[in-house]
Amino acid sequence: MLLDGVAVSDPDDPIASLRRAAERRSEKREQVDDIGLETLRTVADAYRDVETLLDRYEERITDRDDLEGYIEFRERLTEVLEALDADIRHSEAFVDANDALTTGVTSTLSTSDVDRARAALDPVRNDASLLDAWQSARDDYRSARHEAERHEAELRDRVEELERVRELGAADLDAPTQDIRVPIESYNDAVTDAFNRFLRDASARDVLEFLETATAYPLVELPAPPAPLRDYLHTASVGTEPVSVLVEYAEYSRSKLDHYVSDPQSFQAAVGPHTRLLATLSADPLTVEWPPKPASELRWRMRELVAAVGRFADEETVALARAVRALTERDDYDRLRDAAVAREVLTDEQRARLKRGAVEEELEAKRAAAEDVAACLDEHPPLDE
């Protein structure tokens, strides 16, 4: 759908956002590299293990009446600390924290002891925070890059729309489009009448056989007949009734249906699930849209329509289908079609913008903006996981 000069939504400068995110990621990356990523991860994991124990046991280890809680805490803390390498970064911080959490003869801790332990862990807490900040910077970079990609795609779409508006603006709006419209409308009217008569007068069996035949013409796009329905109508006596009668029968109760078909259960099983398909059959897939498709597309479709329509319509209707196909051989078909599309698609606002050069101006601006975003994306490639 073409837009009436509506500007593409402009997020908060995606280029600047990506560059800021890249700068922050680079800064955090340097800080991480100075220490070593694996070293940081080891320290951060150890810190989180100790901090988790403190959060979980703080109330119990400061409760004078909960000696069991203190003992349990000490056992788990000892397991964590003994699992650490002796040369772990900031090993003294873990030692100091452990000292603060070790009781004397009272076998109890105070909140100030816990606070001292947490203060002792400040160096490793800072390392863990750095690791979190680095990961956050990476996530922000990914998000900023994704937003830039989305914005570039939006700009490219707008460029395509504006190019199409400009192309349509070059169409000859005074061209005699009725030269192709009248034959198309004549065919559409004739094939609609012919198909409606076919649905009204032909047996449901014949209609299903036609739909089966039409599957050989994919450009016609008629619904394929369900095999259970087709097989049932091929042998059941009710298959000689028109489609409209089957649709009516499908609404009957089984007791009422018993008066009209020999086997109500089989009828309901075969026809019931496909009542909507039968009730909505129409000539629409057999008609030609306006404005019509480009010559090559319409030519191939009309070849199939001539063959399909010939299965149920009179020769006059088939001749009208051939006449539409012949339109695609006209030297001026593309010019007439472009004029028809322009009249149908271009709004008054778009025509006014074309006339005053606003479309060309926006096209140049959006194309340049898309190239700028693309260049920024090239400068800042995706992260290697």
So what's the overall shape? elongated
Q: What proportion strand?
A: under 5%
Please summarize the sheet with the most strands: none
Tell me the helix content. over 70%
Number of helices: 18
SSE arrangement, N to C:
HHHHHHHHHHHHHHHHHH
Radius of gyration: 38 Å
User: What does the average pLDDT come to?
Assistant: 92
Uncertain parts: 5-9
The total strand number stands at 0
- The structure class reads mainly alpha
Q: Report how far the terminal alpha carbons are from each other.
A: 38 Å
Description of the molecule:
This protein is an all-alpha fold. The chain has a domain of 123 residues. 70% of the residues lie in helices and 0% in strands. α6 packs antiparallel against α18, α8 crosses α9 and α14 packs antiparallel against α15.
Sum this structure up briefly.
With 385 residues, this protein is mostly helical. Helices cover 70% and strands 0% of the residues.
Features:
385 residues; mainly alpha; elongated
Tell me the layout of helices and strands.
Blueprint: H1 14-35, H2 37-61, H3 67-82, H4 91-100, H5 111-120, H6 122-169, H7 178-201, H8 204-214, H9 227-235, H10 243-249, H11 254-257, H12 264-271, H13 275-279, H14 295-309, H15 315-327, H16 333-345, H17 348-355, H18 358-379
Helix pairs in contact: 1-6, 1-18, 2-3, 2-6, 4-5, 6-18, 7-15, 8-9, 14-15
Keywords: Coiled coil
Coiled coil: 141-168
InterPro entries: DUF7118
